Amino acid sequence: MDHLTAVKTEIVDEDRKPVRLRGVNLGGWLMMEAYILYAPNRAEQLFKKHFVKKLGVRALQDFEKNFRDHFIREKDIENIGRLGFNCIRVPFNFRLIEKQPYRYDRRGLEYLDRLISWAKEYGIWIILDLHAAPGAQNHDWHSDSLGKAGLWQRPEFQERVYALWEFLADHYRDEDTIAGYDLLNEAVLADHQLLNRFYQRLMKRIRAIDKRHILFVEGNHWAQDIDCLEDFSDDNLALSIHFYHPLEFTFNLVPQQSYPLGNGPSRFDRQTIRHRLRPYAQKAKRTKRPLYVGEFGVNAREGKYGEDHYLHDLLVGFEEFGFHWTYWTYKAVKNGILPDGIYSYLDNPAWVNRAGPLTGWETYANLWPQERQAIVKSWETDAFRPNPSVLTALQNALRYSATPRRGGVSQQYSLAE
User: Fold this and answer.
1) CA distance 340 to 325
2) DSSP secondary structure string, 37-89?
3) Which of 44, 186, 218, 362 is catalytic?
4) 175 flagged as catalytic
5) Which of 299, 304, 335, 383 has minimal CB crowding within 10 Å?
6) Looking at domain 5-397, which CATH architecture does it have?
7) Catalytic residue selected from 44, 98, 295, 362
8) Tens of pLDDT along 44-88?
9) Domain residue extents for the chain
10) Which tens digit of pLDDT belongs to each residue from 243-265?
11) Which residues of the chain have pLDDT under 50?
12) What is the pLDDT of residue 112?
């Protein structure tokens, strides 16, 4: 794999040739977001706490190992490369590695090491994403929060983030398969100055150990506001945003809405998307930084409501402005709300139980042993089906002068409207 570097507004390889990162997120794997397995959206730590009360610590350890070993396997990374993607963003919970403050578990690190070895085999770059930080960087369940953004309230939590990234930077500083570090997912806080001070200190700590890897810096308010970010002095840095506009459509919060949405001034269409993206492009140009869309996605309803056209227009916008991107997410149990994976699990066995009241992994403790065995098998991607409206839009986007993948079989495409 070629080592990647951010040089002004481009990401380049060792020959200083521009590389456009296009890929997917492995959502739900190393940061267990409940909806991805059709469970109620609450913090991972709450699920595990209740699991231990019912079945014990050893049962939870077995559950976690079975899930991680089956949800993402080497054949998934091979498949991602075969589809033409050259990048994987890997959301992880700090608890994967930090078992006690400043004490790190090498067993958690082994999952990242294994993934990196697979990615190297198939010519795919990795972006490590701290998706849940000590204390939680926002108040939502998907940061493993209990309702507060405690990271910003206690300097001790911030210090633990610095130390965790120091540990990871020391371990991976010579690993070229890693494109870079996504320092913090979707911070939400009122004090922009505190966010900038946090990033400045974190960059300084990482750069004392690792000067080679790109630092991906997300803006405030769920990675939507990058204007609040200072023009940091680090040369090897990319700005990162998330784009899910409009939520009522992409999350299917208002059912049966079709894209384009609305009429007149309230219309949301390709021009609206370009209008929303342009300020991000201007910020990137002004600060001479690459712009990376770490997350975007849509609840796919078989393309019946224009989801494929939405993704097409969005991806055309990314290409027009030269943005890098990773789609959210690779796979998920089919849900009525929130973004779908490229692959969806459609069946309704006892462990999914869409009728409720217990659904998804919440059902595990109440199932017979043979039913639990079936759960493990159903986590494998072979049991999932592709979402054509999503996959086709993404693969069409790869036709925009796709960059060959280093270390694997590259696939070239040509644009088809």
Assistant:
1) 16
2) GT--S--HHHHHHHHHHHH-HHHHHHHHHHHHHHHS-HHHHHHHHHTT--EEE
3) 186
4) no
5) 304
6) Alpha-Beta Barrel (3.20)
7) 295
8) 999 999 999 999 999 999 999 999 999 999 999 999 999 999 999
9) 5-397
10) 999 999 999 999 999 999 999 88
11) 402-417
12) 98
